[in-house]
């Protein structure tokens, strides 16, 4: 049944036959409340201005003015929908609690990853600036760990962060993680002191290959065939990029490879050490930085030494000026921040997923470093990097 209302409120007279037809035409469908009809003197005031289909009428009661000296005209509530639309269907969508929690978890991890990548880009820029002016990677690595340790000690002392409750077993479990972290950190810094940032990260994009190999041969884990096949473009792309690198340096190349292997062990040991522990990702990395600082400091003194540091520091200040101090502070602080966020991510995901995120992060680092440092790159070299990144994408798809 359809009713039509003009621009102004329209009225129509009900005959007895029309009244019967009106009530008999109720449609038993689910609909949405739209407008109301008011009866006065057998007339209907249409409070609508479009062609409507009446789906249901409730509260209808008709009075005869000739028989009832004191008539009361009740409000008739109609449910209708516009004529140019299809019949409305009420759909109640209730999200499952588990689905909502999973969506929130994915969002949380996404925020971690985005923050982690942004902080890492800033760190790599300042780290390379420092190493160009001050080519002492062992001291630079030590300062990064020292800055993070100091930041967390201040946070604990001021109660900005809750100090962790640890015991001897915790530190014992943390030791192999700290050794792997120290080796990986120094090796990556040595690599970037010898070659371009983009080349270091192209080589380090092969980390998923090291993850699979270590997990397979040392941990006895097995993976589907597509996972193994996805390693071929990763390894092949890294090889092409290395062969065609204009400023290839064997020390820089080996540093990146050693860093890959060390960080895979760090991630695996970290995940094992964090299971069943009350120490969260942020405090876990703080403890890791402190232990790594204790491990690295004597080796840094032995390899480079205070005398070389003093000479190099004076040369850097004379060439760069006071901005050099800001560079050192920035690279040290941002190193701790990006690693802290990455460990907060690792607390929520598997080592393999962490390696994927770590590799995808390198895309932004490679692109930004090429732009900022005007790094010369050949088409074949870029093709190798693209193949390696494509292999990483295929690897992530194969792991789903």
From TrEMBL:
GO terms for cellular component: chloroplast membrane. One of its GO terms (molecular function) is phosphoglycerate transmembrane transporter activity. It holds the Pfam family TPT. Coiled coil: none annotated. It is a multi-pass membrane protein. InterPro entries: EmrE-like, Sugar_P_trans_dom, Tpt_PEP_transl, TPT_transporter. The chain crosses the membrane at residues 109-126, 138-157, 250-269, 281-300, 320-338. The keyword Ion transport does not apply. It is found in: Plastid, Chloroplast membrane. NCBIfam families: tpt (TIGR00817). This is Sugar phosphate transporter domain-containing protein. It comes from Ilex paraguariensis.
């Amino acid at each position: 049944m359809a009713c039509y209302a003009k621009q102004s409120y329209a009225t129509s007279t009900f005959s007895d036959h029309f009244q019967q037809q009106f009530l008999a035409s109720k449609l038993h469908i689910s609909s949405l409340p739209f407008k109301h009809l008011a009866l006065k003197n057998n007339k209907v005031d249409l409070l609508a201005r479009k062609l409507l289909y009446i789906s249901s009428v409730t509260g209808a009661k008709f009075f005869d003015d000739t028989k009832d000296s004191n008539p009361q005209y009740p409000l008739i509530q109609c449910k209708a929908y516009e004529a140019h639309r299809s019949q409305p269907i009420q759909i109640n969508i209730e999200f499952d609690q588990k689905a909502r929690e999973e969506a929130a978890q994915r969002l949380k991890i996404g925020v971690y990853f985005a923050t982690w990548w942004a902080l890492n880009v800033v760190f790599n820029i300042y780290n390379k600036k420092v190493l160009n002016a001050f080519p002492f990677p062992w001291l630079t690595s030590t300062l990064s760990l020292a800055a993070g340790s100091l930041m967390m000690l201040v946070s604990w002392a001021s109660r900005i962060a809750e100090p962790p409750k640890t015991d001897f077993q915790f530190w014992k479990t943390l030791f192999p993680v700290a050794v792997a972290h120290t080796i990986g950190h120094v090796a990556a810094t040595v690599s970037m002191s010898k070659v371009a940032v983009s080349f270091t990260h192209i080589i380090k994009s092969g980390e998923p290959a090291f993850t699979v190999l270590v997990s397979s041969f040392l941990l006895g884990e097995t993976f589907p065939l597509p996972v193994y096949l996805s390693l071929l473009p990763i390894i092949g792309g890294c090889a092409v990029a290395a062969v065609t690198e204009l400023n290839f340096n064997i020390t820089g190349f080996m540093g990146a490879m050693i860093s890959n292997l060390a960080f895979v062990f760090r991630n695996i040991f970290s995940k094992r050490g964090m299971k069943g522990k009350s120490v969260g990702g942020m405090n876990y990395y703080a403890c890791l930085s402190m232990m790594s600082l204790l491990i690295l400091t004597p080796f840094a003194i032995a390899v480079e030494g205070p005398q070389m540091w003093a000479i190099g520091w004076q040369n850097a200040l004379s060439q760069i000026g006071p901005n050099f101090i800001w560079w050192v502070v920035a690279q040290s602080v941002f190193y701790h921040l990006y690693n802290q966020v990455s460990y907060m991510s690792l607390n929520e995901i598997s080592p393999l997923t962490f390696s994927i995120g770590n590799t995808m992060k390198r895309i932004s680092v490679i692109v930004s470093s090429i732009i900022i440092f005007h790094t010369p790159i050949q088409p074949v070299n870029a093709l190798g990097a693209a193949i390696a990144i494509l292999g990483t994408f295929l690897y992530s798809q194969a792991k789903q």
